Amino acid sequence: MLEDSPARIADPAASRTAGQVLVDSLRLHGVDRVFCVPGESYLAVLDALHDVQDSIQLIVTKHEGGAANMAEADGKMTGRPGICMVTRGPGATHASIGVHIAQQDSTPMILFVGQIARSQVGRDAFQEVDYQAMFGGLAKWVVEVTDAARMGEIVARAFHTAVSGRPGPVVVSLPEDMLVELTDKPAFACRALEPTPPSSDALARVAQALQGARQPLVVVGGSGWTAQASQQLQRFAAAWNLPVACSFRRQDVLDNRSANYVGHLGLGMNAALKEAVKNADVILAIGTRLGDVSTDSYSLLEVPEPRQQLIHIHPDANEIGRVYRPRMGLQADTASSIAALAALAAPARRAWDDWTARARQAHEAFSLPPARAAEASGADLGAVIAHASAQLPDDALVTNGAGNYSVWLHRFYQYRGARTELATTCGAMGYGVPAAVAAALRHPGREVLCVAGDGCFLMYPQELATAAEHGARLVVIVVNNGMYGTIRMHQEKHYPGRVSGTRLVGPDYVALASAMGAAHAERVDTTEAFPGALARARQAAGFALIEVLTDPRQITPALRLD
To answer: Given this model, what pLDDT does residue 8 score?
Structure first.
């Protein structure tokens, strides 16, 4: 939301359509980009957007799932609600994946859905859906605007809800007949809640608990991490020499090169890091929900009373104690909390310096790509990711979806800056390509890398056409092992030798990229060929794609299929 924007827009005495008021509200809240697939159910909004092309860019995607993923990624990058518009019925169901991602990832987002006319509700009309029933368990708030006069009020509340407390998605249903009605009630801007820092008494108790520790651990995650907050986290961790672990797919919260960064609480977790969590005597969790992936299926901390002294800081009181009952729970804003912690006086003596050093050493050893099996074929994905990490600048934006390939990415790529990792904590396949398009549009001067498995890539390959249409510069690495690797791994564990439903026969990825308008596309099948391919892709004037053939039997960095 724009802090300096006027509170209202348009002449209060003039009547405007509800669709125009909606667009007025978008402008007041600082929206500069909308992702959509058009539909006749919200033509009045599209018409109103025609009048503001100089201030709001309309990105028409090729699939509603792609539009929703792009909007969610945009919300991750900006901290403001990403905006998606789709039509009723099939449009909304396709876009539901973005709502689920935003809910699990705590990302501010608003999905506007065209709806049937109010007079037809309840008749099972063409493409009719009850959006309250459909999205009620996914979104923070679901509302249908039935009165044109309330459009400004409801949209302002939608923005407020999306960013307040634990951020998340809001769904606004727009009956098509309501959108063309006139109203003299103008749009107005909401104001976000002022951040709530921990009290001085609470901070003193946090400091006391840390000072009494012998094996403390800081766990960070969630949303709301700005560049400034990450820098303050670094100052706090360095002054106290505390080990810091990032929760699942939040590795960008702390520069991975920091001496205090000790690893990623995600899939394929370092065994040494698991032991560090188990053996910690004080855990300070900031912003994170402590979900199942970051706690290794809730096994690293006992439910509901952890053996470790848990201090949990989170902006939403409902998240504190949801699974784990902390010794101290603080409902407080993430950024202001870390600022307050960074201002604490560091202790003169620390009992945990060796503990921190050992945890860092274990992480550094784990981050080195292991030697390949002599019989391995194709390119070494560990070496590929390590090379990309070494070549890309610190502010490069890296995106990915879900699949075993991501274990290599999260283990061997070093994230160096806040909001440079765009990945889903809900494990949604297909996120990488649309997220990379959104990243390239939001930050056209920065490099964008998407890493996708062959199955993950095939969810939304059509959005490469969207990238070409808008001249977006990004590089896509398609890791091709000819299978749905994660499912195959579990299949081999439980039903060895009985391959069913996990083989994947894809297209010619280089030809597909070229057909979509790639500025450069090539295939590599050896480790040695990758550096040159990456250099050529990075020099491309538009989007580029590198298909990397890997050994299908190397199912994780450490495990091979028998």
So the answer is: 58
Residue 194: its pLDDT value, please?
Answer: 86
Q: Which of 303, 137, 126, 334 is nearest to 219 (CA)?
A: 334
Distance CA 520, CA 522 (A): 7
Helix H, strand E, coil C: the string for 277-338 is HHHCCEEEEECCCCCCCCCCCCCCCCCCCCCCEEEEEECCHHHCCCCCCCCEEEECCHHHHH
DSSP codes joined into one string, 392-420: S-TT-EEEE-SSTHHHHHHHH----STT-
Longest dimension (CA), the chain: 78
State the chain's mean pLDDT as an integer: 95
Contact predicate 65/466, CB 8 Å: no
Q: Where are the beta strands (DSSP E) in 18-81?
A: 33-36, 57-60
Threshold 0.85, pTM exceeds: yes
Between CA 431 and CA 427 the distance in angstroms is 9
Distances (CA, A) of 307 to 264, 280, 281, 327, 364: 21, 9, 8, 10, 28
User: In Å, what is the CA distance from 76 to each residue of 70, 276, 477, 562?
Assistant: 10, 29, 22, 40
**Cα–Cα distance for residue pair 459/54, rounded to 1 Å:** 32
Vertex 520 angle, CA 519 and 522, to 5°:
160
Straight-line distance from the first to the last Cα atom of the chain, in angstroms, rounded to the nearest whole number:
54
- So what's the pLDDT on residue 122? 83
